[in-house]
Amino acid sequence: MLLIISLFLVNCNSRNSTVSLSSISSERKQIAQNFAQTFLKKCSDKDHSEIRGFNISKRFQLKLSSDSIKKTCERIDRINGKVTVEKLVSVHTNNSPKDFLDVFNFKIKQEKIQTQYYLHLGMYRDQNYVELPFYISTDENYYETVRKKYYKK
Question: What is the DSSP letter of 51?
């Protein structure tokens, strides 16, 4: 019984892992970065029309209506000001259950906030579908952000 509990505790600490940037194809990196830049450019241009030219999952597509893009852009502008993507700094993936989603973490520059923030964007490995999360936080690892938010000690 103690062995099972100790194995469980060891595995809890490694629910996600860092994927080497060199193992991610340049095409995938470019798609993720282009999507993030396109979304943020729509915000700065106050263009709340549908995002085209990307494979977007059905779940994420439902959240990308004109109204939700407008609300998200207004929130980003109010809190962060103009946001620009600087560079891809890391990619993380869940270890268990075996997931086919990588979370790309981009270093961003903000007009109103000087603290370092990251934009997290999910992308399925199959046919490079863009997926949730699309989230801004101070943690480089999106999974660490979720852990802090929902699993407070």
Answer: P
